[in-house]
Specification:
Oligomer: heterodimer
Strand content of chain A: over 45%
Helix content of chain B: under 10%
Structural class of chain A: mainly beta
Radius of gyration of chain B: 14 Å
Number of helices of chain A: 0
Low-confidence stretches of chain A: none
Number of helices of chain B: 0
Structural class of chain B: mainly beta
Mean pLDDT of chain A: 94
Radius of gyration of chain A: 13 Å
Chain lengths: 112, 114
Amino acid sequence: NAGVTQTPKFQVLKTGQSMTLQCAQDMNHEYMSWYRQDPGMGLRLIHYSVGAGITDQGEVPNGYNVSRSTTEDFPLRLLSAAPSQTSVYFCASSFPEGNGYTFGSGTRLTVV
Amino acid sequence: AQSVTQPDIHITVSEGASLELRCNYSYGATPYLFWYVQSPGQGLQLLLKYFSGDTLVQGIKGFEAEFKRSQSSFNLRKPSVHWSDAAEYFCAVGSMEYGNKLVFGAGTILRVKS
C-alpha cells in the first residue's frame, strides 16, 4: 500500500527548462490536487481534478499544466521554469464527500 | 472568499504542558475542517477532521479539536505535549460546494522545551 507516490524527491532546474513532476496513487481516489508550499504561506492549490479527464485551476495555476488521463496518475508540468517556482510541491488525493486528503512526501524544486 | 487564519506563527510549550493551537476560518458554505501535522522534510499527516455532528472530535496522537460555529473557530488541543509533537501544524477548510478543494492556513510551528 504505497499511498501517494511523488517523483522525483529533489530537482534542480535552470530558468526556462521544462519538466514534469509525477504523482501516482493506488487508493482509487477520485480527487487529486497539486499544492505548493512556501515558507509562511501554508499550502496553495495549483490545480486539482475530480476524476479522469476533469481538471480545474486552483489559486496559483500560472506556469503549470496538468492532465488526468487515468484515475491513478496526475502529473504536473512546468512549461518554462522560473525562479519564482522554487518551492516544495505536494500531490494529494482523496475520496469525495469531504474526506481528508492523503499527501505524498513532496518534491523539492529549485530553479536557478 | 474562503480563508483560514492561524494567528500564531510560533508557539513554545514545555513538555507535559497543555497545548491549544488556534484556527479561524471564513467560509460561506458548510465547512469541512481538518488539522494536519508536518514534521521537517516530510509530507502532511491528517490528525483529525470535522464534517458534522459532535463538535468535539478526537484524532490521532491524543489530539482533539472543537468546532465552534459562532466563533468560526476550530482550535486544536492536547492535554500533555510530548517532545515528539514538535512540528508544524496546519488547519484547512473545504466544502463540497467548492469541489472539495482545501484552503490551508499559514501554519503554526510548535516547539517543545524539556
